[in-house]
Amino acid sequence: MRQAAKTQSVEKIDPVWSRIREEAEEIARKEPALGGFIFSLILNHDSFEEALSHRLAQRLGNADIGADLIVHAFRDAIEAEPEIGHAARADIIATFDRDPACDRYIDPLLYFKGYQAIQTQRMAHALWHAGRKDFAYYLQSRLSVLTSIDIHPAARIGKGIMVDHGHDIVIGETCVIEDNVSIMQGVTLGGTGKEAGDRHPKIRYGVLVGAGAKILGNIEIGHCSRVAACSVVLHDVPANTTVAGVPAKVVGYAGCTEPARAMDHNVEQVAGRGE
Predict the structure, then answer these.
(1) Could you tell me which residue ranges the Serine acetyltransferase N-terminal domain spans (predicted)?
(2) In the chain, at which end, N or C, are there fewer CB atoms within 10 A of the end residue's CB?
(3) Are 187 and 166 a contacting pair, CB within 8 Å?
(4) pLDDT tens per residue, range 223-268
(5) Strands 188-190 and 169-171: what pairing?
(6) Three-state secondary structure string covering 217-234
(7) CATH T-level fold of 14-149
(8) What is the DSSP letter of 107?
(9) Tens of pLDDT, residues 89-148
(10) 168-274 has which CATH code?
């Protein structure tokens, strides 16, 4: 009775964590060989934040800095910025909603390096602002080696972010990514040269950035716009539009009200609807 009441309480207070635990128990039943892996990373922990910290640390730790030290640093980061846990949950929901290859909430946490990279950057960002810049740089460097995703700790990233396939991605120091953005593989959000100061793109709410797109300089990609695959964007993009090409030009309407959620990369269907 007590355990049943506790389970119901967890479901009510933290439905994402409750669902992840249920999925973890199912994995342990169906694949006993993974039992130790599942228990050590999910079922032995009392909170989503602890499980997240241990999963990331297990991947990032090595002979230079062990996983235990990284877990302690992540606890400090979450204490300093509790919003990390809420954003990480929103990213799981976003990935489940937008990625047809994601069948369970537990998948991004255990297996998807794009999701893990964003959460590592969230931790590094908190440590960066707490004055622990070298530890943050270490996490950035280690993440880049492991995943081929390079995100500066100072970049500002919102919640509800989906990074699909998570490979060959660069996000610069002064980049801003607002809520509910989807980013495909091979994307660069970078600068244009040796300029200092605010020099990286601002990606507004609901934007879909296609595979291989390069968005360069202190420019703004307006809310709910689409950047077509392999485009090179050098100038501001109006809200609710699709841009494509090298250099990118407006080719029409965004195709829907929230491109990041729809995940529709078909540019032809909007041709002729631009300004």
Answers:
(1) 16-120
(2) N
(3) no
(4) 999 999 999 999 999 999 999 999 999 999 988 889 999 999 887 6
(5) parallel
(6) CCCEECCCCEECCCCEEC
(7) serine acetyltransferase, domain 1 (1.10.3130)
(8) H
(9) 999 999 999 999 999 999 999 999 999 999 999 999 999 999 999 999 999 999 999 999
(10) 2.160.10.10
**Which of 208, 211, 212, 213 lies closest to 226, judged by CA?**
208
Alpha carbon distance 209, 181 (integer Å): 8
Structure tokens at 70: 């990284």
- Per the listing, tokens 């060959």 go with 168
Q: Give the global pTM.
A: 0.91
Q: What are the structure tokens assigned to 76, written together?
A: 């400090």
Asked if 188 and 214 count as a contact pair (C-beta separation under 8 A), the reply is: yes
Helix, strand and coil in the chain, % to nearest 5:
45, 15, 40
Domain boundaries, the chain: 14-149, 168-274
Structure tokens, 222: 């307006």
2 has a pLDDT exceeding 60: no
